[in-house]
Amino acid sequence: MNIALCHSMQYAERAEEVKRWYAAHGHQAFPSSTNDQYLGLSDNEKETLKLDEKYHHDAIRVHYAVIEKSDAILVLNYEKYGIPGYVGGNSFLEMGFAYILRKPIFLLNPIPHIPYYETEIIAMRPTVIDGDLSRLLA
How buried is residue 94: exposed, middle or buried, by Cβ count under 10 Å (0-12/13-18/19+)? Predict the structure, then answer.
């Protein structure tokens, strides 16, 4: 199975761990193509790099192509800004791409309670795997 990983770049290290876990189980998981550039950076450095990648290197369209070729997406929605299961704007956009492409959408953690777009996340009918990576393979 080919899995597109969607996540905040603040979690580049965690995305690498998930990628390695799936590889050890005979599957391919694809974080952002520039994920390696974020490893070891501070949150502020990651934020600066993120805008540059999106603006100058078309990172949104590049990851869209990964989603197109994948069998499913997995949103790595860890706690951020004090919100359990946070889904940021870019991950939400990628969920929308997957939804339109009729790709299965998986959330690592429960749907966050975020005003204005919690309903839209629910409407895309993601499967919540409650932190159990093997559930995506079932």
Answer: buried
Indicate the burial class of 56 (C-beta count within 10 angstroms; 0-12, 13-18, 19 or more). exposed
Residue 58 predicted with pLDDT over 90: no
The predicted pLDDT at position 16 comes to 96
C-alpha span between 135 and 138 (Å, rounded): 5
Predicted local distance difference test score (pLDDT) of residue 120: 96
DSSP one-letter string for 57-76 = S-HHHHHHHHHHHSSEEEEE
Residue 78 · residue 86 · CB < 8 Å:
yes
CATH architecture, domain defined by 2-137: 3-Layer(aba) Sandwich (3.40)
Comparing CA positions, the residue from 42, 90, 32, 99 lying closest to residue 66 is 32
Would you place residue 84 in the very low, low, confident or very high pLDDT band (cuts 50, 70, 90)? very high
Greater pLDDT, 47 or 13: 13
Report the side by side order of strands in the sheet with 2-7: 28-30, 2-7, 72-76, 105-107, 127-128
- Which residue stretches of the chain are H helix? 12-24, 43-56, 59-69, 89-100, 118-123
